[in-house]
């Protein structure tokens, strides 16, 4: 039975057979091997009938036949030149297309973008993500194959047309070999909306891509699932802005410190951060505090904290006497006159 999966050998025809010869050979053999006509030898008949169906399906479709011929040719030349005796040519498989999708092939990765509160990235938390996912087709257990017989849709299972001619589609058999699962159309998966609960670790940068293993598309033919690649869009926050690992916030600086330089403090997520203010800092100026932004949960890389100067009045500003005000004015006037 070494030629049992050679479609030409199965139909007993040569490689140069015309479309008509292929159909005639199939009709003749399908009649001969129809399981209903071989009840005493039903297993062998079913096997043979299935092989005939496969051979006919491939060879009767010009595109598939072309591909099959090309595979056959390349398999033959490989066998001749590579010296691996007994090496099974890959077209020996029942389905020439099987070679392009091995059973172990991993499913596709899915992509999703989710809007998260800034705090979730800074402090960590759990988020819910709705994805247009895929589930394994229950009808075929993810194999995408049906591998059985279904009634011929052309003749309604009669084998003959209303006018008494042999049905051209099933060759009079009344049934057709149905290699593909009708529920998933051979894909092995069906679309399904899913809600996933995903843990986000503290310090996750806003531009991160989270890879959720196994939450992607199931692989064809029951292969491993792909991953879900999750990206974020951060909800606007009243006090903070997050860009990657860099956190931006406002810092109140009284104008004396802004003028002369010094230190100022601010609260960042319950933490007191000290910043050095250079002399002459104008309102809106960004002061960088290195390493005080987010700390990446995997790499440990620390982002910067950028503090935007907001000018504030110093303690006691409202209690200035007339004399104090005069002194202040004269100080600035004298300084201006020097330049
Ligand atoms: Zn039919
Ligand atoms: Zn299916």
Structure notes:
By secondary structure, the protein is an alpha+beta fold. It folds into 3 domains: 7-100, Orthogonal Bundle (Helix Hairpins), CATH 1.10.287.110; 111-138 and 193-236, Urease metallochaperone UreE, N-terminal domain (HSP40/DNAj peptide-binding domain), CATH 2.60.260; 241-334, HSP40/DNAj peptide-binding domain (Sandwich). The protein contains 7 helices and 13 strands. The protein has helices spanning 7-11, 19-33, 42-59, 62-81, 118-123, 255-260, 322-338; strands at residues 110-116, 125-136, 145-151, 175-180, 189-200, 209-212, 228-234, 241-243, 246-254, 262-268, 271-277, 286-289, 305-312. The longest helix is centred in the first third of the chain and has 20 residues, at 62-81. It is rod-shaped. The model is unreliable at 78-103 (pLDDT under 50). Residues 137, 139-140, 144, 181, 183-184, 188 line the site of one zinc ion.
Sheet with the most strands, sense and barrel status: 4 strands, mixed
Give the fraction of residues assigned to helices.
25-40%
Distance between the termini: 104 Å
* Individual helix count: 7
**Strand coverage percent:** 25-35%
For the biggest β-sheet, the strand order reads 8-9-13-12
Class inferred from helices and paired strands: alpha+beta
Mean pLDDT across all residues, rounded? 83
CATH architecture annotation of the largest domain:
Orthogonal Bundle
**Could you spell the SSE succession in H and E letters?**
HHHHEHEEEEEEEEHEEEEH
List each distinct ligand once: zinc ion
User: Which regions have little confidence, pLDDT < 50, spanning 5+ residues?
Assistant: 78-103
Q: In total, how many domains does the architecture comprise?
A: 3
CATH superfamily of the largest domain: DnaJ domain
Per the CATH scheme, the topology name of the largest domain is Helix Hairpins
